[in-house]
């Protein structure tokens, strides 16, 4: 489900020294629900060449991938795959077969149909326990605290962690909201926020993120609003974003 930590876990694995030392190259490609073989292949080319390809022919894109990856031991991460069409998958991964033995393609997904299509070893992530959710919340809310946290805050925090229903992303967002203040009143307001009322797990992440958003400072809310104008997966140029972000604030 959303927020269980698939992408975060994969990022952690890719950063492990034992993994990095096992591959000559590691490339991360975000796929998304709107799957198109050519566009995703272009993303792979962009990742391996560090430049945007000018061509749009699938065969030419495949040649570029083979040119840069052939004979090298590679780890290719395809993040957030939804498409379960085997022919699309075969076309996408065909040039990757030219990598050296020991190469791997890792996929994050939410669909069981995709796991059957990929036909490989699958790891199903489980939700966290309430105790672990509280640890995540506490780490985010009280990053510099020692073990002697006010017991009243602990009791409220544990109740909030239980509402996160085992989702790390929800716990991170709740912890961020709590971190705005260490007063009992503030934590109680987060606990009793109306957005917790809908207990559907599928809606929980957005609800908790809204709680976190409500406790942002006004400048950060404006930045968030500006960035929301761009589509999911948009690649930002930090200097351009800063320039237009400051320019747009004068009209808010």
Automatic annotation (TrEMBL):
Top-level taxon: Eukaryota
Protein name stated in the entry: NB-ARC domain-containing protein
Coiled coil: none
GO MF assignments: ADP binding
Domain NB-ARC span(s) in chain numbering: 1-145
Pfam families named in the record: NB-ARC
Organism for this UniProt entry: Miscanthus lutarioriparius
């Amino acid at each position: 489900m959303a927020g269980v930590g698939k992408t975060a876990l994969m990022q952690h694995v890719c950063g492990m020294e034992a993994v990095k030392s096992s591959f000559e190259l590691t490339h991360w490609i975000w796929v998304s629900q709107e799957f198109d073989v050519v566009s995703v292949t272009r993303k792979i080319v962009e990742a391996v060449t560090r430049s945007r390809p000018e061509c749009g022919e699938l065969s030419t894109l495949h040649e570029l991938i083979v040119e840069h990856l052939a004979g090298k031991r590679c780890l290719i991460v395809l993040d957030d795959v939804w498409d379960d069409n085997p022919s699309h998958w075969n076309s996408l991964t065909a040039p990757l077969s030219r990598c050296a033995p020991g190469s791997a393609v890792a996929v994050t997904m939410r669909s069981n149909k995709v796991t059957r299509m990929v036909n490989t070893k699958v790891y199903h992530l489980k939700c966290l326990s309430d105790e672990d959710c509280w640890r995540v919340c506490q780490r985010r809310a009280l990053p510099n605290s020692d073990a002697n946290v006010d017991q009243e805050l602990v009791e409220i925090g544990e109740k909030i962690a239980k509402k996160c229903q085992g989702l790390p992303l929800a716990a991170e967002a709740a912890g961020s909201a709590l971190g705005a203040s260490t007063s009992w009143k503030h934590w109680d307001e987060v606990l009793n926020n109306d957005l917790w009322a809908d207990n559907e797990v599928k809606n929980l992440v957005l609800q908790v993120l809204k709680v976190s958003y409500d406790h942002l400072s006004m400048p950060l809310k404006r930045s968030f609003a500006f960035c929301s104008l761009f589509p999911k997966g948009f690649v930002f140029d930090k200097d351009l974003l800063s320039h237009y972000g400051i320019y747009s604030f004068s009209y808010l």
